[in-house]
Design brief:
By secondary structure, the chain is α/β, with parallel strands linked by helices. 37% of the residues lie in helices and 15% in strands. It has seven helices and six strands; from the N terminus they run βαβαβαβαββααα. Strands 3-2-1-4-5-6 form a six-stranded parallel beta sheet, sandwiched between helices. Helix 1 packs across helix 5. The longest helix has 15 residues. It is globular and about 45 Å long. The two termini are 21 Å apart.
């Protein structure tokens, strides 16, 4: 619009917005089972190959950790990623759900401990906004505009895009499980104030 000559005072930048639900994550952090969720197309930019290797390293260095890793999304890399999970000997803890409807995704979000976004490239991912609107902590790579919504040690953690940093991020999130509710509350407050679709469109 600026390039087309629109007056600066007539241009309004609008954030991506999501519907802020009354629902919130109600999982307690007392269980020994750690429930991690990723949602996104199974393509190169989403970083799932690196994520699976990071999870395998996490388990190799922390044999006492009990993990359930759910991945929702379809795409051309599905068979390759399933094969990789078997090669890494983590197929017993990783479940590929394929493409699912929004209700399935929401229910999985409400049942998880945190959202894991290992992307190589992103803009401002709606899946993070949706998860945070449900008071879910997020571990994400510091790419695109994610740093605007994932605030380190306030709504979750940001890491660089590589296996070792993703592994360290997972360890950090697990070590801070006592703060998950705090991260989730902060995230929901931020979404409600700055990314609430109802407020943005008023």
């Amino acid at each position: 619009l600026r390039l087309l000559g629109a007056p600066e005072n007539k241009i309004i930048d609008l954030n991506n917005g999501v519907k802020v639900s009354a629902s919130v994550r109600t999982v307690t952090n007392e269980s020994n089972l750690l429930k991690i969720l990723s949602v996104g197309r199974l393509v190169e930019d989403k970083g799932y190959q690196v994520a699976l290797n990071a999870v395998a390293k996490l388990i190799a260095f922390n044999s006492d950790i009990n993990i359930q890793y759910d991945i929702i999304g379809g795409g051309k890399l599905e068979n390759e990623l399933i094969k990789l999970s078997k090669t890494l000997n983590i197929d017993s803890i990783v479940t590929f759900h394929g493409s699912q409807n929004s209700e399935f995704v929401k229910n999985k979000m409400l049942a998880c401990d945190f959202l894991f976004l290992p992307s190589k490239n992103e803009a401002l991912p709606t899946v993070v906004l949706e998860a945070q609107s449900l008071a879910i902590p997020v571990l994400a790579t510091n790419v695109g505009s994610i740093k605007d919504i994932v605030i380190d040690d306030e709504t979750g953690f940001l890491v660089n895009y590589n296996e070792d940093d993703l592994k360290t991020g997972l360890e950090k999130m697990i070590a801070n499980r006592a703060n998950w509710s705090f991260y989730g509350k902060n995230a929901k407050n931020n979404i409600s104030k700055n990314y609430n679709r109802t407020l943005i469109t008023e």
